[in-house]
Structures are given as structure tokens and as C-alpha cells.
Here is the input.
Amino acid sequence: MIAESKVRELVNSRIGGTALFLVDVMTGKAGEVRVLVDSMKGVSIEECAELSRWLTGELDEIDPDFSLEVSSPGLGAPLVMKQQYEKNIGREIEIIFTDGNKKKGTLLEVDEDEITVEVTEKMIAGGSQKKKKSVPVSKQFAFKDIKSTKVVVKF
Here is the structure.
């Protein structure tokens, strides 16, 4: 069986200094190896094929009994890496927090520990009638409090 850590090491050595970054590596007991890569501009089929050909040669030397898939994360895949959040600044996201709560909003900023999202909240408007009005508000959410984040896909 090929170790996940070895695959990570190999992929990072190959894509270091390129626009690609490693999102995830999954290995299975039956020799399955799945590699997810991304970049700020997206990933072409040619980039995945080239990495797959190279990685096949490297993994063959370790254990010739494996199946390999190299791809980019799908449209509905959760954001995993900070770079993926950065890539999606300006897009609508849905956040599921560790406590089960959900929020939707526009991703505005990303830093080391948190993201800033513009969400719409109901607030009391001025005047004596105390009507609630939807108002855009910037909020920070710590990565440690986020269970998953997905880009909202609109057609």
C-alpha cells in the first residue's frame, strides 16, 4: 500500500513553484490513490494528465499495484485550503459551523485565522415603528469554528 504522506511529498515536490497547489490526497486499502489539485485560475485537463503521468511513474517504483485519479475538486466540493478561500473572494458561500448553524454570504477577505463575509441581517430601522430591515453586515468567522464551506453555485 502506498502511504498518503508519500503521495503528498511527491506531489508537492512536483508542483512546488507552479500555480498548482495540493488540496487533498486520499488512499484506499485496495491501492486507490486520489489526488486533488487546484490553482487560482482553475486546473486544466492537461495539467491533471501531466501530473498523473509523472506520478504514475513515481508510484510504480513504490508499488505497481495501484489505481490513480488526479483531478480538481468538483463544483460542490467544500473549500479545504486557504488558497481555495482566496480564489473564491467575491463569491457567495455557505458556511456550516461546528455547532450546526449555517450562514450564507459573500466572501470578502481571508487571513490566517478567519474569513470576513458580508451577510444580510435583520436590524431595526430608525424611526418609531421599529420595523426590521435587511442590512448587509461584514462579519468575521474563525476557521476553527467552521465545519465546512461551499461555494453557492447559481445557474
The longest helix spans residues 45-62.
